[in-house]
Design goal:
single chain, alpha+beta, four-stranded antiparallel sheet, 4 strands, elongated
Length: 87
């Protein structure tokens, strides 16, 4: 499984300066070349020590092992956050 992109990213209103909440639609590419769109909600929280914690919520179930999907999704979110492309 490969994460193609997260489209329609919306930043949710939050009054905590160290936490950002987002929602969007993740596009997966499954091994046989087909793509799958699924809604996703995630939050990025920074601790006082500078560590970053990414929490992901997938509201719908899908036919793929959950742990590898969450691992690759966290890596993708971390990379776009470091690039500065998130809102």
């Amino acid at each position: 499984m490969k994460i193609v992109t997260i489209k329609d990213i919306l930043k949710k209103e939050n009054h905590l300066f160290y936490r950002n909440d987002y929602s969007g639609t993740v596009v997966y590419e499954i091994t046989n070349g087909t793509t799958l769109d699924q809604p996703v909600e995630f939050s990025i929280e920074r601790s006082a020590l500078g560590t970053v914690d990414i929490q992901i919520r997938l509201p719908e179930a899908f036919d793929y092992p959950r742990v590898p999907a969450l691992r690759s999704l966290k890596a993708y979110i971390s990379s776009i956050e470091k690039e500065g492309t998130l809102l």
